[in-house]
Each structure stands twice: as structure tokens, then as C-alpha cells.
Write a structure and sequence with these properties.
The chain has 15 helices and 16 strands. The protein has helices spanning 47-57, 82-95, 110-119, 148-163, 167-173, 181-194, 197-209, 213-216, 236-245, 266-280, 303-310, 312-332, 352-367, 392-402, 413-418; strands at residues 9-13, 16-23, 29-33, 61-65, 101-106, 124-130, 223-228, 250-254, 290-300, 336-341, 344-349, 373-385, 388-390, 409-412, 425-433, 440-448. A hairpin with a 2-residue loop joins strand 12 (373-385) and strand 13. Helix 4 packs across helix 5 (167-173). The longest helix has 21 residues, at 312-332. It is elongated and about 80 Å long.
Length: 454
């Protein structure tokens, strides 16, 4: 098609350098969040996937990148969270001068694409989800996921094949039954250069903990979900679930039995994706009226008694010192102060892990003043009103905070699910009723890490 391998560039995302490439010069941008493990240079040797990328690049400017920890991007300690991966999409867009783009998420990158679209609706013109899932594991209300035992067996087989000469090609072929031997070898080489055995295993174990079902309803971008009916690695029910729970999503089920596009299926995939994108990106971008946000509430424990003990003047001085320390930590962790009421703060974050680490830092900083605070966090759909957020998610955050003990950081189940891979650990506080909020809510107390993430 006349397109050679583009030059590899780097975008800075926090302390990490993310490898990316730009191919094509079309009238709109498409960011490709790659499946599984990637390598932005070796991917062009995979016949089917490269054909798909070039097919999109005939009509658009395409941004491809390696997720942090894989390919030519920086290796990192531990496993990147969905939040950090969303940051990487934003970093690549900014480095490439892209204010707004369609996002195409494939396979394991579907959850991160959903989180990005929900968190930054103003940056996403359209969303395409291919061969992916909202959750990997079985649950009573998600019957088509793997059991934990089944998933652990799959991971063991995958790593054993990765370590055994010649065996990994056979493992790869299970996901690409119609691929040529050349393409199977190219994919196997692409994955081997894209990750070490340890990083691949850590990635798969993090995927076991992911659950973005609560985020699906927040997506406002025009969305297309595509799944192959006989996908051998991700059952078609996963794709159907995504389409049913993203507002207004279109769904296409291809009559195939492959996980990632090969030379045989690339034209079918392009035939569904390109018309959708070309129509979706021409729509006028509405002002976002909802967004995925993490809300944080804090207040000082025993403030009334302490004020009476100190007297008005000394209490005002202590309160000013408290406010200064809280605001310093909000600035450090990219939190946005939305309101203060007496001795309490209400703030929002674009990622739950940052919110948790900020809460821990606030607790430790004000403890040096001889104060104890209770803190609570929830992540969910928020209404956007004049740069502030409102709605049921905000009410839930306030109720979670009210149930926290002195010095405790308490979070909702949604927050816990979204920080998989962060190294943050929790104690289960069980199911509770939150005043004025329907249903029962499972809450968790944050045990670790230190505020700097260690």
C-alpha cells in the first residue's frame, strides 16, 4: 500500500517514555490502543494487523503506541494501572498534536480505552472496541467469564509456552486459526520482543482483577463494538455485554473464529470500522455533560471539641495550616479543589489511584499538626456543571467518607476495581447501607502503599 514503517517517537507520560508512531495524513486522528503485548516496529511484520493499520491510515492520521512496560516503551516496576495507561493515551495525543481523536481499543486494551473515553469525553470523537471485555473473571452477574482457576491455568500454559522453544507459536496459533505460518511466527516474535516472561505474567494477573462494568454507562462518545462470533480467547458474550451496557453503542458480530485480525479478516474489520469512524467524527462535539471522576471528601475528626479547647484565634490558625497542607497535596496529585465547608474538603481526580495516594498524603500531613481526618473516595458518573461535578456519585463519596474512622481512607468497590495493578491493598469492610443511597455498598479500607506509591 506504499506505506513503510514510520519513525518511532517518544512521548513523556509522567516519568515514563512511551514509544509511538504516526502513520497516514487523513483529516481526523485515530489512536490505536494495541492488543495484549505490542512492539511498534515489529508489528509491521504481522501481515493481518499491519494490513488493518495501513487500511485505517489510508483515511486518517493513525497514532500507534506501545503501552508502558511493553515494546519500545520504558519498562516499569510492577504493573501499570488503567489510570496510568489512560495517561499514556493522553500523553501520546499531546506529543502528536492531537486535541481530539477516535480511539480504537483491541482485546486487553478495551478496558483502558473505556476508562479514557469516560474520563476525557472532550478528547474522544468516537470509540471502537474490538475483541475485548469489561471483566475477565466469572461473577454471579457475569456468567461467561473465566473462573479464577481456569484463568490461572491459562496463564500457566501461556508462560510455559513462552519459555519453551517452538511452543509459543502453537499457543499463538490457537488465537489465529487461519493465519499463515509466516504470520504466526511474526506474531510470536512480536510478543517475545514486546515483553519478558515476568512482565507478561504480571500483565495477565492484573487483567484478572480488572472490572470496568461500572464505567460503561459513563461513555458518551459514539461507540462501535465488534466481536468475532467464534473468538477462541474472548467469548462473544463479552462483546455483547459491552454493547448492551454502553449507551447507544452499535454492535457488529463477525462470522469468524479469530481473536486478532489476520490477512483474511482485516478487510471485514475495516469494512465495519471505517464507515462508522468517518460518520462519527463529522458530528459536532457536544459539551460533555457527564464524566468519570473520582471524588474525595475529608473532614477533621473531633473538630468542635478541638476548637473549644484551643479558642477561636488558635483554632483559625490551625485550620489555616490544615487547609494549606491539604491544598499542597491536591496540587501534588493533580486533584482539583471543588469546595470547602468548615473543616472539610471536596475534591475530584481524573484517576482513583492518584486520589487514594493523595488521601494518604493528606492524612499523614495533617497528622503532623496533631489532627486526625477521615477520608472517603468513590469513582463514578458525575454530571458536569460549570467546571464542577454533581450527581449521585458525589453523594456516594460523601457518605463513604462519613463512615470512615479517624485516620482511615475508605473507598467504594468501584475505586478498588479501577486500581488493579497499583500495589494498593485493602481490608474488606463489608456491605453497608449509605444514607439516602439505594442498595448495599461494599466498602474497603486502604492498607497500603505509602503516598508516593512505594
Amino acid at each position: 500500500m506504499g506505506m513503510g514503517m514510520p519513525e518511532t517517537c517518544y512521548a513523556r507520560s509522567g516519568d515514563v517514555m512511551v514509544a509511538y508512531q504516526v502513520v497516514g495524513q487523513g483529516p481526523f486522528d485515530v489512536v490505536i490502543a494495541p492488543p495484549w503485548v505490542s512492539h511498534v516496529e515489529l508489528v509491521w511484520e504481522t501481515v493481518g494487523w499491519a494490513a488493518f493499520l495501513r487500511g485505517i491510515a489510508e483515511h486518517a492520521r493513525v497514532l500507534v503506541f506501545d503501552k508502558r512496560g511493553t515494546g519500545l516503551s520504558d519498562r516499569v516496576a510492577g504493573v501499570p494501572t488503567l489510570e496510568e495507561r489512560s495517561d499514556d493515551i493522553r500523553a501520546v495525543m499531546e506529543a502528536a498534536g492531537s486535541d481530539r481523536a477516535a480511539v480504537f481499543g483491541a482485546s486487553e486494551s478495551v478496558p483502558m480505552s473505556v476508562v479514557f473515553a469516560a474520563s476525557y469525553p472532550e478528547r474522544v470523537s468516537a470509540l471502537v472496541l474490538y475483541g475485548g471485555m469489561a471483566r475477565t473473571l466469572w461473577a454471579p452477574d457475569y456468567l461467561f467469564g473465566f473462573t479464577e482457576r481456569e484463568m490461572r491455568k491459562v496463564i500457566e500454559e501461556e508462560i510455559e509456552a513462552f519459555l519453551t522453544p517452538g511452543a509459543f507459536e502453537a499457543f499463538v496459533r490457537r488465537g489465529f486459526p487461519s493465519a499463515t505460518e509466516k504470520d504466526v511466527r511474526a506474531w510470536a516474535r512480536h510478543v517475545r520482543y514486546g515483553a519478558s516472561p515476568g512482565s507478561l505474567e504480571a500483565l495477565e494477573r492484573m487483567n484478572m482483577a480488572i472490572d470496568v462494568r461500572d464505567v460503561l454507562g459513563v461513555v458518551s462518545a459514539p461507540t462501535l463494538v465488534v466481536h468475532q462470533r467464534g473468538d477462541p480467547w474472548v467469548r462473544v458474550e463479552h462483546g455483547r455485554y459491552l454493547a448492551q451496557h454502553i449507551p447507544g453503542a452499535a454492535y457488529v458480530e463477525l462470522d469468524g473464529d479469530e481473536h486478532i485480525s489476520t490477512a483474511a479478516t482485516a478487510p471485514q474489520l475495516l469494512a465495519q470500522v471505517m464507515p462508522f469512524l468517518q460518520e462519527a467524527v463529522t458530528r459536532e462535539a457536544p459539551e460533555p455533560d457527564k464524566v468519570l471522576a473520582t471524588v474525595l471528601f475529608s473532614d477533621i475528626v473531633g473538630s468542635t471539641a478541638r476548637a473549644a479547647e484551643l479558642g477561636d484565634a488558635h483554632w483559625r490558625e490551625l485550620l489555616a495550616a490544615h487547609h494549606g497542607r491539604v491544598r499542597a497535596q491536591l496540587a501534588r496529585f493533580r486533584g482539583v479543589e471543588l469546595d470547602t465547608a468548615g473543616d472539610g474538603f471536596f475534591a475530584r481526580f481524573d484517576g482513583p489511584a492518584r486520589g487514594i495516594r493523595c488521601a494518604l498524603a493528606i492524612r499523614d500531613a495533617v497528622r503532623e499538626l496533631g489532627l486526625e481526618v477521615r477520608l472517603g473516595l468513590h469513582a463514578g458518573e458525575c454530571e458536569v456543571l460549570d467546571a464542577k461535578v454533581a450527581g449521585i456519585a458525589v453523594a456516594i463519596g460523601a457518605r463513604v467518607s462519613a463512615r470512615a474512622a479517624a485516620g482511615e481512607v475508605l473507598v467504594s468497590q468501584t475505586v478498588k476495581d479501577l486500581v488493579a495493578g497499583s500495589g494498593i491493598t485493602f481490608d474488606d469492610r463489608g456491605l453497608v447501607e449509605l444514607k439516602g443511597v439505594p442498595g448495599e455498598w461494599r466498602l474497603y479500607s486502604v492498607v497500603s502503599p505509602k503516598p508516593d506509591g512505594r
